Amino acid sequence: xxxxxxxxxxxxAGMVAAISAAKNGASVTILEHKEKLGKKILAxxxxxxNYTNLHQTMECYRSENISFIEEVFSxxxxxxxxxxxxxxxxxxxxxxxxLYPNSEQASSVVDVLMMELKRLQVDxxxxxxxxxxxxxDNGYQIDTLVTVTETKKGNENNNKKASNSKNxxxxxxxxxxxxxxxxxxxxxxxxxxxxxxxxxxxxxxDGSGYYLLKQLGHTIVPVVPALVQLxxxxxxxxxxxxxxxxxxxxxxxxxxxxxxxxxxxxxxxxGISGIPVFQISRYAAKALLDxxxxxxxxxxxxQVELSELEELLKQRINAxxxxxxxxxxxxxxxxKLIQMLLSQLDKRYKQPLDxxxxxxxxxxxxxxxxxxxSFENAQVCAGGIDTAEITATTLESKLHQGLYVxxxxxxxxGICGGYNLQWAWSTGYIAGKSATLx
Length: 438
Ligand SMILES: Cc1cc2nc3c(=O)[nH]c(=O)nc-3n(C[C@H](O)[C@H](O)[C@H](O)COP(=O)(O)OP(=O)(O)OC[C@H]3O[C@@H](n4cnc5c(N)ncnc54)[C@H](O)[C@@H]3O)c2cc1C
Known about the structure:
Distance between the termini: 13 Å
Bound molecules: flavin-adenine dinucleotide
Low-confidence stretches: 155-171
CATH architecture of the largest domain: 3-Layer(bba) Sandwich
Strand order of the largest sheet: 13-16-15-14-17-18
CATH topology of the largest domain: FAD/NAD(P)-binding domain
Helix content: 25-40%
């Protein structure tokens, strides 16, 4: 008899878990509360889907339990991901090790996954919002709230067991209206929870997975937004909003340096954004949650040493006595940035121009971080289900036999660069296969 497996959530981890389980002979059902699968995948990599990275070290991942991640990747790593997707039709394109489908369309990734789910006859139930998972004799009961929708044009019931081909990334957006809701119930021997975290909830992951697993006794490591913009103190940000420049950032928590990143910094009217900010943001979010002091020190000229910069500034200013200080600095940094730094120098020191203080201001500009942007603006969550309660070789819960937890829901987050999807593919694949074995 075929093993029956229910997968809650049809995102990156859920779709791969379904394929892996069905390939190993299981009868698989996906319960998805949105009207299509893989909505978040479509938004990844600016619509191009950076689906993994050739450079993999444990420094690219964060968790309370790094050895758990190593164990998972020893069973399914980036090479397996590349082979898995190549078999489905995705020809990889590497940009400095960051992998994208050669089509540069995230929709290609969703399309090939949907075609495989169809080939393997995976049953996909859309608009099924899972509200409860109850252990019963020999398995689980899953209670859902079903939303019946109508398209604007007619009375088409969108909750019918959907034909997969119908859902392959349509460009045309249908306007769906809710006409009814009702309760539904399923039973299965094995359940894989793949509901994602709570970043960008409009794409499906609304945090309900944390609630479902908490009800089953699992511990949640506090969840905060990660890969997110940072809000900072200071009205001077208005002056530089929109400026982009290469910079080196160092983050200090209660005065201790915890991480540094270099890359294109984006200054906004509320604080700082851009890839280097995303990379350090989870440290800020965790520290702010613990009510700690967070400072980011910005080096606007990482390519020169402080002493070199002092010399350079002296030469420029002394050689241009016919110019104002601001005019003498034009060409060195963005003009709005020069104006802001000079006004801050004036405000902070209230004394005639001191070149060594100006050089320090350019290389050690300290800002106080007050908050992160919301989960809605975050690409991922840091924190989640405590991995101490999950078996790394199978992704099975240590508290409930036959219950598996995968993807972003777990207390693992990656830096920017394809690492979060790699985590979703790896955990999904292993859980799907393991669920068919026992
Ligand atoms: C804008 C953006 C860009 C990103 N770019 C990249 C990138 O280029 N590379 C990279 O590696 N990572 C990227 N990420 C992160 C990556 O997309 C996620 O880490 C990954 O999708 C997580 O996979 P998942 O399957 O765990 O969760 P998700 O992909 O979020 O899927 C969860 C699924 O579960 C469904 N669901 C949730 N709750 C329920 C419920 N109660 N009942 C039924 N269904 C439910 C959701 O609708 C969803 O379909 C990006 C994220 C964002 C927001």
